[in-house]
Amino acid sequence: MTQRVTVTREGMMVDQLALAATGSDAGGAVEETLRLNPGLAAVLARAGHRLELGRVVTAPEASAGPAVIRTVKLWD
After folding, report:
1. Letter string b/e over residues 50-75, b meaning 16 or more CB atoms within 10 A of that residue's CB
2. What does the pLDDT look like over 9-49, one tens digit per residue?
3. pTM score, two decimals?
């Protein structure tokens, strides 16, 4: 599922928008946001990587549950 998000803060970057939209900084939110918005990466490259105020961006929905973090033991 996706959601439409309007940039309400000047100078916001895609990673900040993705974090606000999904509620998590677990990997893949920025990449998914760019995939959902063809041409956005080119616009950002010309605009100094900042989203302009008022732009509507399609973002991924918040994940249903917390990310699973695999624990690795260095010693037994």
Report:
1. ebeeeeebbbbeeeeeeeeeeeeeee
2. 999 999 999 888 888 777 788 999 999 999 999 999 998 99
3. 0.76
For residue 55, what are the CA distances in angstroms to 42, 64, 73?
A: 15, 26, 45
Distances (CA, A) of 54 to 21, 57, 62, 69: 15, 9, 21, 36
What one-character DSSP code corresponds to residue 48? T
Calpha distance 62→34 (Å, rounded): 16
Hey, what are 68's tokens? 């699973």
